[in-house]
Amino acid sequence: MKKALLFLVISISLFSCKEYEEIQFLGLKEVKVNGIKEGSLLLSTKAVFNNPNDFKGKLKSANIYVLLKGDTLAHITHINKITVGPNTNFDVPLSMEVSMDQLQKGLLSNLASLFKKKSVELTFKGNIKVASFGFTQTIPISYKEGIEF
């Protein structure tokens, strides 16, 4: 019994000495236009993060706004729990519906440039919360991506 207690105390001591490193946002990948449904443009992407820690965690929430020239096109909230592995990169799949009315409103001011470029630059701003061993970390997201039509 004493050996088990001693092992437990040593294990906790060693683990508690390890410094927690912040999870890093690496960017977005695979930003895709998936089609149109009932007057909304369907988009999907994957947010890529790196967990440099030796222990796993869980994605608690995502709160990301998709902006076009400062105007909000979509609001992404992710509620599925995702387990974050230790010392690894991980993806968070995100999907959104952008109202064509909002998209056109933002594009009308730049209709001429849209025909020349056939793409728009979307800004993704917000945060993602990850928890591990009672610590919750809010990771800021600020990313720009050109979407081709």
Structure summarized in a few sentences:
The chain is α+β, with helices and mostly antiparallel strands and 149 residues long.
How would you portray this structure in words?
With 149 residues, this protein is an alpha+beta fold. It has a single domain, classed as Immunoglobulin-like. The protein is 21% helix and 60% strand. It contains 3 helices and 8 strands. Strands 3, 4, 5, 7 and 8 form a 5-stranded antiparallel β-sheet that branches. A hairpin with a 2-residue loop joins strand 7 and strand 8. The longest helix is centred in the first third of the chain and has 16 residues, at 2-17. It starts with a helix and ends with a strand. The mean pLDDT is 76.
CATH class: Mainly Beta
Given as residue ranges, the uncertain stretches (5+ residues, pLDDT < 50) are: none
Mean pLDDT: 76
Could you say what the CATH topology is called?
A: Immunoglobulin-like
Q: Which bin fits the share of residues in helices?
A: 10-25%
Q: What structural class do the secondary elements suggest? A: alpha+beta
The helix/strand series, from N terminus to C terminus, equals HEEEEEEHHEE
Number of domains: 1
The gyration radius over C-alpha positions equals 20 Å
CATH architecture: Sandwich
Anisotropy-based shape: elongated
CATH homologous superfamily annotation: Immunoglobulins
Distance between the termini: 68 Å
What can be said about the biggest beta sheet?
Answer: 5 strands, antiparallel
Helix tally equals 3
Strand content: over 45%
Total beta-strand segments:
8
